[in-house]
Amino acid sequence: MLPNQKSKTILGAIQQVKAIYAHHGFAISAILMDGQFDTLRADLADMQITLNTTSNSEHAPEVECHIQTIKECACAVYNMLPFPQLPTHLIIELIHYCTFWLNSFPTTTGMSNTLSPCAIVTGHHICYEAHCKLEFGTYVQTHEPHNNSMDTQTTGALALGHTGNEQGGQYFSVLLLVNS
Prior knowledge:
180 residues, alpha+beta, two-stranded parallel ribbon, 6 helices
């Protein structure tokens, strides 16, 4: 999630992605972006990345299609939740959740019919028993550090998705009760 659309912020995010890809043996040689990102051309050239921008009032169809797919996935999950609205940080986590799952399975237009984008880039594979335990927004009781007193030992929380590790660790958002 980018906090803003400033060139410095976007360039920092591209550098992070480039480092992740390089760590796994891949090199980014070109990026397709909307014309608004043309200001990054020199910085990307310094990183040996060719910037291909669209014309004015034109969008990159591959990018727009992927964004629409993520939005549709997020809308489907959002509308299955029993909440009338979500705080911003949960919407950000919902987008992350949908993106993770879309990258976890091979696509018909992808590089491989058997390997997911995630498996190709990171080598991580999804294991049903470890990674498919909880859906986004599932209510759970999380274990909290405690002693032998009568204090609560669990806290209500919502499942946000797994951490991406091989063991299937999960992220949670703790629910705070507000007295009205």
